Amino acid sequence: MAVSNTEVISNRYHIAGLLQRACTAHAIISLQRPHEQFIYNSVILALNNDEHYFTIDAPADSQIPLYAKPGDWLKLRIKLQGLVLSFEAIIEDVLDDTISFRRYQLHLPSQVNYQQRRGAFRANVGYQFNAFFTARLDEQQKISGRLIDLSLAGASAELTSLLQLKPQTPLSHCKLQLGSDSIIITAAIIRTIQMTEHSLDIYRLGVEFIELSASERRSLQRWVMKFDRESRKSAFTE
Fold first, then answer.
1. Residue 195 contacts by C-beta under 8 Å, 6 or more apart in sequence?
2. In the listed set 90, 117, 144, which residue is the last one of a domain according to the structure?
3. Among 81, 101, 117, where does a domain finish?
Protein backbone atom coordinates (compact mmCIF):
# COMPACT_ATOMS: atom_id res chain seq x y z
CA MET A 1 0.00 0.00 0.00
CA ALA A 2 1.37 3.44 -0.92
CA VAL A 3 2.44 5.70 1.93
CA SER A 4 1.15 9.26 1.66
CA ASN A 5 1.90 12.65 3.11
CA THR A 6 -1.28 14.52 4.04
CA GLU A 7 -1.70 18.16 4.92
CA VAL A 8 -4.55 20.66 5.13
CA ILE A 9 -4.06 23.69 2.87
CA SER A 10 -5.80 26.89 3.97
CA ASN A 11 -3.83 29.54 2.05
CA ARG A 12 -6.17 30.96 -0.59
CA TYR A 13 -3.46 31.36 -3.24
CA HIS A 14 -2.22 27.83 -2.67
CA ILE A 15 -5.77 26.50 -2.96
CA ALA A 16 -6.29 28.38 -6.22
CA GLY A 17 -3.02 26.94 -7.51
CA LEU A 18 -4.08 23.40 -6.63
CA LEU A 19 -7.44 23.84 -8.38
CA GLN A 20 -5.63 25.25 -11.39
CA ARG A 21 -3.66 22.00 -11.58
CA ALA A 22 -6.97 20.13 -11.38
CA CYS A 23 -8.52 21.91 -14.35
CA THR A 24 -10.05 19.41 -16.81
CA ALA A 25 -9.55 16.63 -14.24
CA HIS A 26 -12.29 14.17 -13.39
CA ALA A 27 -13.69 14.22 -9.87
CA ILE A 28 -15.89 12.07 -7.68
CA ILE A 29 -18.58 14.40 -6.33
CA SER A 30 -21.14 13.71 -3.62
CA LEU A 31 -24.11 15.96 -2.96
CA GLN A 32 -24.78 16.24 0.77
CA ARG A 33 -28.20 17.04 2.22
CA PRO A 34 -29.89 15.96 5.46
CA HIS A 35 -30.81 12.28 5.09
CA GLU A 36 -29.71 12.28 1.44
CA GLN A 37 -26.54 11.52 -0.44
CA PHE A 38 -25.98 11.34 -4.20
CA ILE A 39 -22.64 10.39 -5.74
CA TYR A 40 -21.48 11.26 -9.25
CA ASN A 41 -18.37 10.48 -11.24
CA SER A 42 -16.41 12.21 -14.00
CA VAL A 43 -17.42 15.82 -13.46
CA ILE A 44 -14.94 18.16 -15.13
CA LEU A 45 -13.41 20.96 -13.10
CA ALA A 46 -12.52 24.43 -14.35
CA LEU A 47 -11.19 27.45 -12.48
CA ASN A 48 -12.64 30.92 -12.95
CA ASN A 49 -10.43 33.95 -13.47
CA ASP A 50 -11.65 34.99 -10.06
CA GLU A 51 -10.07 34.43 -6.67
CA HIS A 52 -13.39 33.67 -4.95
CA TYR A 53 -15.07 31.11 -7.23
CA PHE A 54 -14.51 28.10 -9.42
CA THR A 55 -16.87 26.21 -11.72
CA ILE A 56 -17.78 22.62 -12.47
CA ASP A 57 -19.25 21.43 -15.75
CA ALA A 58 -21.77 18.64 -15.32
CA PRO A 59 -22.07 16.56 -18.53
CA ALA A 60 -25.49 15.55 -19.81
CA ASP A 61 -25.01 11.91 -18.75
CA SER A 62 -24.39 12.94 -15.14
CA GLN A 63 -27.31 13.02 -12.73
CA ILE A 64 -26.05 16.09 -10.90
CA PRO A 65 -28.16 18.56 -12.97
CA LEU A 66 -31.28 16.77 -11.77
CA TYR A 67 -30.58 17.37 -8.09
CA ALA A 68 -28.02 20.10 -7.35
CA LYS A 69 -29.15 23.66 -6.75
CA PRO A 70 -27.72 26.87 -5.24
CA GLY A 71 -27.08 26.46 -1.53
CA ASP A 72 -26.20 22.75 -1.77
CA TRP A 73 -22.87 21.56 -0.38
CA LEU A 74 -20.76 19.31 -2.58
CA LYS A 75 -17.95 17.06 -1.45
CA LEU A 76 -15.26 16.72 -4.10
CA ARG A 77 -12.45 14.18 -4.39
CA ILE A 78 -10.03 14.73 -7.26
CA LYS A 79 -7.39 12.18 -8.18
CA LEU A 80 -4.35 13.48 -10.02
CA GLN A 81 -1.13 11.63 -10.74
CA GLY A 82 0.49 11.05 -7.37
CA LEU A 83 -1.91 13.13 -5.28
CA VAL A 84 -5.52 13.42 -4.13
CA LEU A 85 -7.40 16.64 -3.34
CA SER A 86 -10.56 16.55 -1.24
CA PHE A 87 -12.71 19.41 0.00
CA GLU A 88 -16.23 20.76 0.39
CA ALA A 89 -17.73 23.69 -1.49
CA ILE A 90 -21.13 25.35 -1.68
CA ILE A 91 -22.99 26.03 -4.93
CA GLU A 92 -23.39 29.77 -5.46
CA ASP A 93 -25.21 29.82 -8.80
CA VAL A 94 -26.12 27.97 -11.99
CA LEU A 95 -24.35 29.81 -14.83
CA ASP A 96 -25.46 27.75 -17.82
CA ASP A 97 -28.26 25.26 -18.27
CA THR A 98 -28.31 23.61 -21.70
CA ILE A 99 -29.25 20.24 -23.13
CA SER A 100 -25.64 19.06 -23.10
CA PHE A 101 -24.42 20.31 -19.73
CA ARG A 102 -24.96 22.47 -16.68
CA ARG A 103 -22.28 24.78 -15.23
CA TYR A 104 -22.23 25.51 -11.52
CA GLN A 105 -20.38 28.31 -9.78
CA LEU A 106 -18.98 27.36 -6.37
CA HIS A 107 -17.22 29.27 -3.64
CA LEU A 108 -13.49 28.63 -3.40
CA PRO A 109 -13.09 26.23 -0.45
CA SER A 110 -11.60 27.58 2.78
CA GLN A 111 -9.38 24.51 3.06
CA VAL A 112 -8.28 21.56 0.95
CA ASN A 113 -7.04 18.20 2.16
CA TYR A 114 -3.92 17.54 0.11
CA GLN A 115 -2.61 13.97 0.01
CA GLN A 116 0.52 13.20 -1.96
CA ARG A 117 2.09 9.79 -2.39
CA ARG A 118 5.41 10.00 -0.63
CA GLY A 119 8.39 9.96 -2.96
CA ALA A 120 6.29 9.97 -6.11
CA PHE A 121 6.63 13.60 -7.14
CA ARG A 122 8.59 15.27 -4.36
CA ALA A 123 12.21 14.81 -3.35
CA ASN A 124 13.98 16.06 -0.25
CA VAL A 125 17.26 17.27 -1.72
CA GLY A 126 18.71 18.44 1.61
CA TYR A 127 22.44 18.90 2.05
CA GLN A 128 23.65 15.54 0.75
CA PHE A 129 23.45 16.84 -2.84
CA ASN A 130 25.43 19.85 -3.99
CA ALA A 131 22.45 21.28 -5.90
CA PHE A 132 21.77 24.97 -6.48
CA PHE A 133 18.87 27.22 -7.47
CA THR A 134 19.22 30.54 -9.30
CA ALA A 135 16.57 32.85 -10.77
CA ARG A 136 16.23 36.32 -12.22
CA LEU A 137 14.22 39.08 -10.58
CA ASP A 138 14.83 41.45 -13.49
CA GLU A 139 17.58 42.20 -16.01
CA GLN A 140 20.00 43.38 -13.30
CA GLN A 141 19.19 41.26 -10.25
CA LYS A 142 19.19 37.53 -9.60
CA ILE A 143 18.98 35.30 -6.56
CA SER A 144 20.89 32.13 -5.81
CA GLY A 145 20.96 29.54 -3.07
CA ARG A 146 21.08 25.85 -2.19
CA LEU A 147 18.25 23.67 -3.51
CA ILE A 148 16.53 21.95 -0.56
CA ASP A 149 13.30 20.43 -1.90
CA LEU A 150 11.96 19.72 -5.38
CA SER A 151 8.63 18.59 -6.84
CA LEU A 152 6.76 18.92 -10.11
CA ALA A 153 4.91 21.89 -8.61
CA GLY A 154 7.81 23.89 -7.21
CA ALA A 155 10.94 23.96 -5.10
CA SER A 156 12.44 25.40 -1.96
CA ALA A 157 15.90 26.90 -1.62
CA GLU A 158 17.98 28.44 1.16
CA LEU A 159 19.33 31.94 0.55
CA THR A 160 21.58 34.23 2.59
CA SER A 161 20.29 37.42 0.98
CA LEU A 162 16.65 38.33 0.37
CA LEU A 163 17.14 41.64 -1.49
CA GLN A 164 13.60 43.06 -1.74
CA LEU A 165 11.84 39.72 -2.01
CA LYS A 166 8.29 39.14 -0.84
CA PRO A 167 5.56 36.58 -1.54
CA GLN A 168 3.99 36.85 -5.02
CA THR A 169 7.26 38.15 -6.52
CA PRO A 170 7.60 36.71 -10.05
CA LEU A 171 10.81 34.96 -11.09
CA SER A 172 12.15 34.11 -14.53
CA HIS A 173 14.86 31.89 -15.99
CA CYS A 174 14.98 29.62 -12.93
CA LYS A 175 17.99 27.33 -13.12
CA LEU A 176 18.42 24.12 -11.14
CA GLN A 177 22.04 22.99 -11.14
CA LEU A 178 23.61 19.71 -10.03
CA GLY A 179 27.18 19.34 -11.24
CA SER A 180 27.16 19.54 -15.02
CA ASP A 181 23.43 18.76 -15.20
CA SER A 182 20.90 21.62 -15.18
CA ILE A 183 17.25 22.44 -15.84
CA ILE A 184 15.84 25.80 -16.91
CA ILE A 185 12.29 26.65 -15.81
CA THR A 186 10.88 29.64 -17.67
CA ALA A 187 8.70 31.17 -14.95
CA ALA A 188 7.92 30.82 -11.26
CA ILE A 189 6.47 32.83 -8.39
CA ILE A 190 7.57 33.16 -4.77
CA ARG A 191 4.96 31.67 -2.44
CA THR A 192 6.65 31.61 0.97
CA ILE A 193 9.64 33.14 2.75
CA GLN A 194 10.65 31.67 6.10
CA MET A 195 13.57 32.06 8.47
CA THR A 196 15.40 28.77 8.96
CA GLU A 197 15.72 27.13 12.35
CA HIS A 198 19.50 26.69 12.24
CA SER A 199 20.49 30.27 11.32
CA LEU A 200 19.00 33.75 11.54
CA ASP A 201 20.97 34.73 8.42
CA ILE A 202 19.55 32.02 6.14
CA TYR A 203 16.05 32.14 4.67
CA ARG A 204 14.06 29.39 3.01
CA LEU A 205 12.28 30.43 -0.15
CA GLY A 206 9.31 28.44 -1.48
CA VAL A 207 8.57 28.90 -5.18
CA GLU A 208 5.85 27.56 -7.45
CA PHE A 209 6.57 26.82 -11.10
CA ILE A 210 4.20 28.49 -13.56
CA GLU A 211 2.79 26.91 -16.73
CA LEU A 212 5.38 24.19 -17.20
CA SER A 213 6.01 22.99 -20.72
CA ALA A 214 5.98 19.28 -21.49
CA SER A 215 9.79 19.20 -21.70
CA GLU A 216 10.17 21.10 -18.40
CA ARG A 217 7.81 18.67 -16.68
CA ARG A 218 9.72 15.68 -18.04
CA SER A 219 13.03 17.14 -16.86
CA LEU A 220 11.64 17.83 -13.39
CA GLN A 221 10.22 14.33 -13.14
CA ARG A 222 13.63 12.92 -14.09
CA TRP A 223 15.34 14.98 -11.39
CA VAL A 224 12.78 14.16 -8.68
CA MET A 225 13.11 10.46 -9.43
CA LYS A 226 16.91 10.73 -9.41
CA PHE A 227 17.02 12.51 -6.04
CA ASP A 228 14.52 10.08 -4.57
CA ARG A 229 16.47 7.07 -5.86
CA GLU A 230 19.80 8.37 -4.55
CA SER A 231 18.27 9.22 -1.16
CA ARG A 232 16.93 5.69 -0.79
CA LYS A 233 20.31 4.26 -1.81
CA SER A 234 22.03 6.41 0.81
CA ALA A 235 19.58 5.40 3.52
CA PHE A 236 20.06 1.73 2.64
CA THR A 237 23.87 1.88 2.79
CA GLU A 238 23.77 3.70 6.13
1. 202, 203, 204
2. 117
3. 117
- Greatest C-alpha distance within the chain: 63
12-15, Cβ contacts within 8 angstroms, sequence gap of 24 or more: 12/51, 12/108, 13/168, 13/191, 14/191, 15/108, 15/109, 15/111, 15/112
Question: Nearest to residue 141, comparing CAs of 113, 173, 114?
Answer: 173
Q: For residues 91-126, b (16+ Cβ closer than 10 Å) or e, as one string?
A: beeeeeeeeebbbbbbebbeebebbbeebbbbbebe
SS3 of 58-98: the string is: EECCCCHHHHCCCCCEEEEEEEECCEEEEEEEEEEEEEEEC
Closest CA to 188 of 143, 148, 227: 143
Phi and psi torsions of 73, nearest 5°:
-95, 135
CB 95 within 8 A of CB 102: no
In tens, the pLDDT along 96-136 reads 777 667 788 888 888 988 776 544 456 778 777 889 999 99
The pTM (predicted TM-score) of the whole model is 0.49
Counting the structural domains of the chain, the total is 2
* Cβ(158)–Cβ(146) below 8 Å: yes
Q: How far apart are CA 55 and CA 34, in angstroms?
A: 24
